[in-house]
Design brief:
Layout lengths: L20 H4 L15 E6 L14 H10 L4 E4 L4 E4 L2 E6 L5 E6 L13 H12 L12 E2 L2 E2 L1 E6 L2 E5 L19 H10 L21 E7 L3 E6 L9 H4 L2 E6 L3 H10 L13 H4 L1 H5 L4 E7 L4 E5 L11 H4 L2 H10 L2 H8 L4 E3 L22 H10 L3 E2 L6 E2 L7 E7 L3 H15 L4 E7 L1 H10 L4 E5 L11 H4 L18 H15 L3 H18 L2 E3 L1 E9 L1 H5 L1 H9 L15
Length: about 575
């Protein structure tokens, strides 16, 4: 979930929609907001960016800006799932089967006019791996704990050597923006790179290789971007869209109203099931078309805080127990979850991996819905009904109660948290749902200051080897207990071994078999639970689908929908 509270993501990052957020949610460009010229796109962001430096921030808004302002060596085509050239025009695998030689595009310039070269690539990886930078991307660019070796052969040729065999190969580079050495090397040498390109930076101090450049940021309100005059790709979005305005709209209801009224052209979120009836008039009038992209590759997740420091909490003996998680799973009717939370526009989860990820999904379901069994499991933990009836109490006579954090303003998360609360109340467990703005929520999760969380973790690629920071016990996006020095449980050690095997192998069936075992272990131990995967439905004008969306699809297909913690981003 890079996966990434690094999307991930968690994205989630490994998985984004084929035509996502800023691309797919286009409204009629002819219905312009007041004062916005016809060559301007107006989009929504659900939260302010935490930084303009993707190497040090994993929030979704920073990821969106990165995709608009920067570029990568290669990019995964979300429609075909194939690796395609980007800044690297071509590459070859060398005889050692671990090294790649990449030929960079010639004549490419940064947005400030400075030439792009192999030195910028070498610098970018140096910054990511620098311990003083403590980059959020570093974990996802390690193979068995070892970094890639990146060297410049000449100004337009780079070699990248993997420290050991790695099945996905160059797919790993999809989420790595290349930064300008001439702008940031002084900060790296001075040890101030972590604070470089913060949100207080002047727009003219930023430089990138993407189609847009930042012109102005008004905190809490909007960001404006202009077309990058030096963007290397011709005929892309940059040739038809001169300006972008990103409005900060934290609430999905307000976002929908702006979409209907023509106040925004693009939304960060895919459609909620309840939005479809509201858009009927716009659909009937031909202003908006709704596309069903199938089952989403990411779902909303529930997890308990299993960090060892939480063991000091007197409730830990039941709150961190596997059987308590089993009782939670047995208390929740997954079909009711589909019907109530997603209004039928979802499928019940039968694995932690979505059935939409056809290559890697195997059935590994949660325990069946069974309230009687759930009560029996809770009793085995010495949780008994209070004399007053209803709620359970533990051995100390304290009420069995915990707090569940979720995101404020996200309807599916708020509805899901409410259903979890009500379902657990039926077996005597009291849940206090606390909805927070996304920035505050992620901060609480990152600090470990919570009992349980219900949130969406985005992954950056469908291949699980590119989300090892979620699966490995040492990973920073191992959300229930991140950054373990060594696996704290036998089952996490099993997953570590399987993921290491999966990452190293080039045999497709061996890799699939290993990840099937990972999914089954997750279903048995239940560190993270998913109850349903929604269908992805995106609005766009019929007009835009034939023009603007097609041009934007290549650029923005990696932008995650919804707010999330993108692991690699993949938060």
């Amino acid at each position: 979930m890079k996966r990434t509270l690094r999307r991930s993501g968690v994205r989630a990052g490994a998985i984004f929609l084929a035509v996502a957020a800023l691309t797919a949610a286009s409204a009629a460009m002819r219905h312009r907001p007041a004062g916005a010229p016809s060559d301007t796109l107006v989009a929504s962001l659900r939260a302010e960016p935490q930084s303009f430096n993707r190497y040090t921030a994993r929030d979704l808004s920073t990821s969106v800006l990165t995709l608009l302002m920067h570029d990568t060596l290669v990019r995964i085509n979300r429609m075909t799932n194939e690796v395609e050239p980007e800044l690297a025009a071509q590459w070859e695998l060398l005889d050692d089967h671990r090294s790649y030689r990449l030929r960079l595009r010639r004549g490419v310039r940064f947005s400030d006019g400075a030439p792009f070269s192999a030195d910028d690539v070498v610098f970018s990886f140096k910054a990511i791996y620098d311990p003083a930078v403590d980059s959020v991307l570093a974990d996802s660019l390690l193979i068995r704990g070892e970094p890639l070796v990146v060297a410049a052969e000449d100004a337009s040729t780079v070699t990248i050597r993997f420290p050991s065999p790695f099945g996905p190969g160059l797919r790993m580079l999809d989420g790595v923006p290349i930064y300008p050495r001439h702008r940031l090397e002084p900060a790296l040498k001075a040890g101030t790179f972590r604070s470089a390109w913060g949100v207080s930076s002047r727009p003219e101090d930023l430089s990138g290789l993407g189609p847009f450049v930042l012109k102005r940021y008004v905190p809490g309100q909007w960001l404006t971007l202009d077309r990058n005059p030096h963007y290397w790709r011709r005929g892309d979005a940059s040739s038809t869209v001169a300006h972008m305005i990103l409005q900060v709209v934290p609430d999905q209801d307000a976002e929908l109203l702006q979409l209907e009224s023509g106040g925004i052209d693009l939304t960060q979120s895919e459609l909620r099931p309840s939005d479809v009836p509201a858009l009927k008039r716009a659909v009937a009038a031909g202003r908006v078309a709704i596309a069903d992209a199938g089952v989403s590759l990411d779902g909303d997740l529930l997890w308990m805080n299993l960090r060892p420091e939480r063991a000091r909490d007197r409730r830990a003996r039941w709150l961190q127990h596997r059987d308590f998680r089993r009782a939670i799973a047995q208390s929740i009717d997954r079909q009711a979850f589909v019907d109530t939370v997603y209004l039928g526009a979802a499928v019940p989860a039968d694995s932690i991996v979505s059935p939409g990820n056809r290559e890697w999904h195997v059935p590994a379901p949660l325990p069946d819905f069974d309230v009687t069994s759930a009560k029996r499991v809770l009793a085995s933990l010495k949780l008994s009904p209070r004399k007053s009836g209803g709620a359970l109490q533990d051995e100390d006579g304290s009420e069995v109660r915990f707090t569940l954090l979720t995101q404020k303003g996200n309807t599916s998360l708020e509805r899901g948290a409410a259903l979890i609360r009500d379902s657990l109340a039926s077996v005597g467990v009291r849940v206090d749902v606390v909805a927070l703005e996304v920035g505050a929520l992620v901060a609480r999760i990152m600090r470990g200051d919570y009992d349980a969380a219900y949130f969406r973790i985005l992954t950056t690629d469908s291949d699980p080897a590119l989300n090892v920071d979620f699966w490995l016990s040492s990973g920073s996006a191992h959300i229930w207990n991140p950054g373990e020095p060594s696996a704290s449980t036998a089952w996490e050690a099993q997953i570590d071994a399987l993921m290491t095997q999966l990452s190293a192998s080039e045999d497709r069936e061996q890799r699939r078999t290993a990840f099937a075992d990972v999914q089954r272990i997750m279903a048995r131990e239940l560190p993270v639970m998913c109850f349903a995967f929604p269908r992805s439905r995106s609005p766009s004008t019929r007009e835009c689908r034939a023009s603007t969306q097609r041009r934007f699809a290549r650029r923005c297909s990696g932008i995650p929908t919804e707010s999330a913690y993108a692991p690699n981003d993949r938060s």
